Amino acid sequence: MTASLLRIGLSTTTTEPGLTGGRLDGIGVYSRALLRELPGAGCAVQPYSFGPPAALTVGRPMPRQFALATLADLALPGTRQHMEVDLFHATDYRIVRMDCPIVATLHDALPIAHPEWCNPRLRGLKNWLQAKAARKADHVIAHTRYTIRELVDCFGVDERKISVVPCGVDEAWLEAPAPDAIAATLKEHGLRAGYFLAVGTIQPRKNMGRLLEAYLGLPASIRAQRQLVIVGAPGARSEEVIARIGAARQHGENVVWLDRLTSGEQLRHLYAAAGVFVFPSLYEGFGIPVVEAFASGVPVIASNTTSVPEVTAGAAIEVDPLSVAAIGSAMLEMARDEALRERCSAAGKVRALQLTWRETARKTHAVYRSILK
């Protein structure tokens, strides 16, 4: 280890286009942001990915495939995989024993805390892998204080080994995209500026069903004026909600579901043209879309549960996500009250300035230093 530059191995499996199909989930967004921002924070970053070498374009291959490395860990628990780094940062559950300190980011404890929302075929495996990851790590990063208690209760992590480092947003999002680019994206998808926007994988915990019900309960004049735009790929146990979205569209409702965008820039355009962002999630370890909406200057309605109030910090209208009436009432109030929208937009911009990926990298570097001192 040099005096000024830390050699950091960073797991980038979740950013590999050949493994993800080009769709980044929250962990992929986080991993890619660290890969980009950590060098500016004083780290020499070497990306590593699990997967067939021919499929990897971001990270160099790990010495062993994850399944083989896990079996080796079980059969020979005293062995350590040699790494040419000062510290390895695992951003997901794929952790093997190494001859250097390991930092693990554990994003949430969803499969244990709420198994009813997870794919039953993979739930047991993910629980086991995350529990092992927690035990192998020398230090753990959580994104919110809320998550600390879950990691302690569900994975047995020593609270003294946990640091809180929030997620963030690209600083470019703080500047409005070009109007012509926004207009082109809206035209491509048949949208009119001012819509209600929701972003997230279609799965039970994202609560899109109640959001749809709340929207359909709004006065017809509001629905005619403002579309409901849902951006997100189908996830586990999403069939019922997708069917309800389709039924609403067949009945002529102003509902648009975008399950795939042609570029990440288009997502910025969709935020920039939204009138209100609605995030009724039942459970979050953080909630990156909220910060993206803040940075885009969009007023936010967000759930009042789990980690979300910690992220919004008073800059959003908070609602009970289990109450369709509460969600609908907040949507109606936002639609009708321009002054309220302006206040929420201004408060969100201030909050976004505190939650950039550059700040995430700076705080992550401080965690590395504390371990290697």
Automatic annotation (TrEMBL):
Read off the Gene3D superfamilies from this record.
Answer: Glycogen Phosphorylase B
Q: Which SUPFAM superfamilies match?
A: UDP-Glycosyltransferase/glycogen phosphorylase
Occurrences of domain Glycosyl transferase family (ranges): 195-349
Q: Does the keyword Manganese apply?
A: no
Q: Does the UniProt entry include the keyword Nucleotide-binding?
A: no
User: What keyword terms does UniProt attach to this protein?
Assistant: Transferase
Annotated Glycosyltransferase subfamily 4-like N-terminal domain ranges read 25-171
Q: Which InterPro entries match?
A: Glyco_trans_1 (IPR001296), Glyco_trans_4-like_N (IPR028098)
Among the GO molecular function terms of this UniProt record, one is: glycosyltransferase activity
Record-given protein name: Glycosyl transferase family 1
Q: What is the protein's species of origin? A: Pseudoduganella buxea
